[in-house]
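For reproducibility, we list the full input for the zinc ion complex.
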Amino acid sequence: MTKIKDITALLEQLAPLRYQESYDNAGLQTGDANAEVSGVLVTLDCTEEVLEEALAKGCNLVVAHHPVIFKGLKQLTGRSYVERTIIKAIQNNIAIYASHTNLDNVLHGVNTKIADKLGLRQQRILVTKPSTLMQLVTFVPVEQTDGVLAALHKAGAGNIGEYSACSFSVTGTGRFTPSEQANPAIGSANQAEQVQENRLELLFPAVLQGRIMAALKEAHPYEEVAHYLYNLENQNQEVGIGMIGELEQELSEEAFLSYLKEKMKLQGLRYTSIGNQKVKRVAVCGGAGSFLIKDALRQGADALVTGDVKYHEFFDAEGQLMIADIGHYESEVYTKEIFYDVISKSFPNFAVLISEVNTNPVRYTF
Ligand SMILES: [Zn+2]
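The corresponding predicted structure, in tokenized form, follows.
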């Protein structure tokens, strides 16, 4: 039996809720986490129409990118589409889960999807997030070092970029005196003890702290495990916003515009001209990404592909950057594929459906 919480736990492995921005409201919005899943419908937005689709297709979990409850709700009377959506979900026992800015801020999230659609190479996060890494220092008897290290690595400590099982150690002397009440693995009450120990140092993502400390306590032979935890200011190359990469071949402005329209299936877009400058390095940010214009310029991007750019923000391109506003919906609609791929890969015998509703409230006329 698959429970709603099994699916949300899987999504949070990809995009931990801790990575969401402070203003956000990602997570389970309605429903019982312990209910059995009958089917999952993935969507960009959860609207009443999407709930109708979920009901028709026998799905009791809707996974969306945008949280339908974003600001606080003070009543549930059905006066707004948000209230009506929530009422409908509750009346029909449909759980709604949102993976929002946390999915914008991870390596295999919203922005990698756009970068992949555009065929960008040498992809990396445009602005990495500080304060998401920690360091563990602990002391282990020499003979038990390998076992403790193996447990820590299994829990996710010591991965740096493309390198796994990373650690540093130095051997020294540990000293302690057990009390009458202690139950020491080595030594006896009131007798000073000296043991050859390794000082181990490992990096890990702060979101894994609970899991890693549990693994340490489980694997370590001592009753009291001496350790230090440090918050690090290091940039985490796997967490942050936007993505930057290079096109296989540089393109003229005109050719890049056609390429964008084809790859992102656009009817049209708004952009700033870079004249005869070629487009090779491209930054992307799903949704509203104009706050990244300066970072894109600083990192030598020729184009920034995003949505929701305001008139005055286009001026910040300074004629050096093609700001391509392809639309909020158009930039993020393929996020559905991320949800679909992740869930259907882990639950292959389970109905995971991509919503067919076009939730874009914006229509175009030319
Ligand atoms: Zn968005």
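The pocket of zinc ion is lined by residues 66, 287, 328, 332 (CB under 6 Å). The first helix runs from residue 4 to 14. Both points were considered when choosing residues for closer inspection.
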